[in-house]
Design brief:
alpha/beta; TIM Barrel; Lyase, Ornithine Decarboxylase, Chain A, domain 1; six-stranded antiparallel beta barrel; 13 helices; elongated; binds pyridoxal-5'-phosphate
Length: 372
């Protein structure tokens, strides 16, 4: 069924972004595609199935419900769960064959205990905290990290860490990234000297790949790059490398009307017409993730190739635009962002969101249509 809003996802561009990424990695490097936040707004299941078709090695999500949704949709690739699974949901890790992050020592013990009770093994990747202080065993907990490898009930298939500020070119941040790399490498060295094969090692997210190149771990763990999304500090560089964003969001005109000079538009009488005008009511609003800050900062939408100003405030499911000089009719599509006229980066300059906030806040039920 058509919706009042649609996200068009350019499959060809995702493939091209992935191809460019591979040219920037060692030949042996595997790709763990992170598809959290509904596949960075590009639909969890459709992005996963595309990743599988592209031969991506592992998929990563942040919660067990996402992993289950992928399995129910027929996804066969290994799924790594980077977030914490509640103890009462441990059974699903086994039932749906999900690799769980071992986020601290006690958590690893609990996973092992549960698995032993089921006479099965839970697959894990060990998370090492090298400075973010979010999840993970501290990099200096070497005995604990080592002992997880021999826990009955667990199959340790990998070990990883996560950068704090890898999008930054500031000297102090670069030094901190270097320190994190040293801390992670020291853990890996300790394991190897102890005769343990750490299996899959991974630390690099999207910004770190642009900033540092391939650091030589056995896999990269990235999301944004596949969808052509980058931090502002890396936008120019990413463009010069050929990466392109893949998301275009379009809305629909509900109706068109004429108004007279002096009339108000929208809640709170925030806009008053200085002349006779033609206005279009658009069937979208903040329920779809369009921030009120968008209109407050002079945001525009593109109606049949022409940029049109938003009049007054954005309501829950509707807002109005000035179409006085544009030929248009009800049900015409209107571009919110994603074309050269208004890129996703132009758009967030108006809303004040980060790129990841934007793609996380687009209403999940808006259809994502993959185009070639
Ligand atoms: C989101 C996330 C990634 C992917 O980061 P990108 O910058 O999108 O490549 C990798 N690892 C963890 C732990 C994450 O939360």
């Amino acid at each position: 069924m058509l919706d009042n809003a649609t996200l068009y996802i350019n499959e060809t561009k995702i493939k091209e972004n992935t191809r460019i990424l591979r040219t920037n990695l060692n030949d042996e490097s595997k790709i763990i595609a992170v598809i959290k936040a509904n596949g960075y707004g590009c639909d969890l299941v459709q992005s996963a199935l595309l990743c599988e078709r592209m031969g991506i090695d592992v998929l990563a999500v942040l919660s067990i419900d996402q992993a289950i949704e992928l399995r129910k949709a027929g996804v066969k690739a290994p799924i790594l769960l980077l977030g914490v699974t509640l103890h009462s949901n441990f059974k699903y890790l086994l039932e749906y064959d999900v690799i769980q992050a071992a986020v601290n020592y006690q958590y690893a013990l609990d996973l092992a205990e549960f698995a032993k009770g089921q006479r099965k093994n839970i697959k894990v990747h060990i998370k090492v905290d090298t400075g973010l202080n979010r999840l993970g065993l501290k990099y200096h907990e070497l005995d604990h990290i080592q002992s997880i490898f021999s826990m009955e009930g667990l199959d340790v298939e990998g070990i990883y860490s996560h950068f704090v500020a890898s999008q930054s070119y500031d000297k102090d941040d670069l030094d901190f990234s270097k320190l994190q790399i040293e801390r992670f490498n020291a853990v890996l060295d300790h394991l190897i000297i102890s005769g343990i094969n750490p299996r899959m090692t991974h630390m690099q997210n999207t910004p770190s790949i642009l900033n540092f190149g391939d650091l030589g771990y056995s896999a990269v763990r990235c999301g944004m790059v596949l969808f052509g999304l980058f931090h502002p500090s890396q936008l120019e560089e990413s463009k010069s490398m050929g990466y392109e964003s893949v998301i275009e969001m379009r809305l629909r005109i509900a109706m068109i009307k004429e108004i007279k000079e002096g009339e108000y538009v929208g809640y709170g009488r925030e806009f008053q017409a200085k002349k006779d005008m033609t206005i279009a009511t658009i069937s979208s609003g903040y329920v779809d993730g369009i921030m009120k800050t968008f209109t407050k900062s002079g945001g525009q939408v593109i109606v049949n190739g022409t940029k049109c100003s938003i009049l007054g405030d954005i309501a829950m499911s509707q807002f109005m635009v000035d179409v006085t000089d544009v030929v248009c009719k009800p049900e015409d599509e209107v571009v919110l962002f994603g074309t050269d006229d208004q890129t996703i980066y132009d758009y967030i300059k108006h809303t004040g969101q980060t790129i990841n906030e934007l793609i996380s806040h687009i209403r999940y039920s808006i259809p994502r249509i993959y185009v070639k």
